[in-house]
Amino acid sequence: AGEGSAPGPExxxxxxxxxxxxxxxxxxxSEIKNKQRRHFMFLRWKQQQxxxxxxxxxxxxxxxxxxxDKAPPKAVPKTIENQRVYDETTVDPNDEEVAFDEATDEFAxxxxxxxxxxxxxxxxxxxxxxTVRFCEQLATVIPNSHVYYRRGxxxxxxxxxxxxxxxxxxxxxNEDRKIPNGLVLSHLPDGPTAHFRMSSVRLRKEIKRKGKxxxxxxxxxxxxxxxxxxxxxxxxxxxxxxxxxxxFIGRQVATFHNQRxxxxxxxxxxxxxxxKKVGIQELGPRFTLKLRSLQKGTFDSKFGEYEWIHKxxxxxxxxxxxxx
Length: 324
What we know:
Helix content: 25-40%
Distance between the termini: 73 Å
CATH superfamily of the largest domain: Brix domain
Number of strands: 11
Radius of gyration: 28 Å
CATH topology of the largest domain: Rossmann fold
Number of domains: 2
Structural class: alpha+beta
Largest sheet: 11 strands, mixed
Oligomer: single chain
Shape: globular
CATH class of the largest domain: Alpha Beta
């Protein structure tokens, strides 16, 4: 061996160091017949892809640091949200027609401060323990809400009693196999009524690193990404559940976040750690809603007039098409 060369196996220095495997450009794992070998080579290939991606990322970061202020703007990654198909019903905040509709719709008395929210929360017949606990925890999130159990009463009989007792909204939690799976929200006395599919329900004891029990302060309300005419109607329905003036001293926030037509509900408490940092802790409960229908007037399953119904086969043809 020449001077300065690496020792080989004939030098008695042990086996040579393993070399990095480079896969050819036309490499296809599916061509390998042996299943175990195919799986092993697939893992090796994925590892190599990750290393190359990380190296490219480091290279670009160094180039940006070297260029300083002259560096080009970062590329915006493509997501389902920013590749969304344009919806002609997207609301323009300066649209006079939208402003007129909102000034004369069923929620106008609430937004004009003529009514104070008073909510009735009830369940399907014979609710099980999990649904009962969920209703009780939901009542601690929504101020001035009262939980009553159905006792076999039909909704058509409950609604007139709610109107007579000055309730402004009715929430019905449905369940299937002891799990809450549906929510009906009806604005009183003239509607509309929205039916949601409910999923991913988590009670307070099931949430990790949760905060202490919520206080009786009126929470702040955040409504995110309700951009279409239908989304505006749903957002106004949720807003009408909470009193107008939040008590900021309680530092509690109820969030309805719409993403790809799934409405994620979270309830948090925040605390100012410094002038720039804010810490948050989730209080619970949490759940996810998916709109199934929006009906004019109060609940009427037989003769009700529907403004919007979700039809999977017709409406879900594109993953980039959203309705809220």
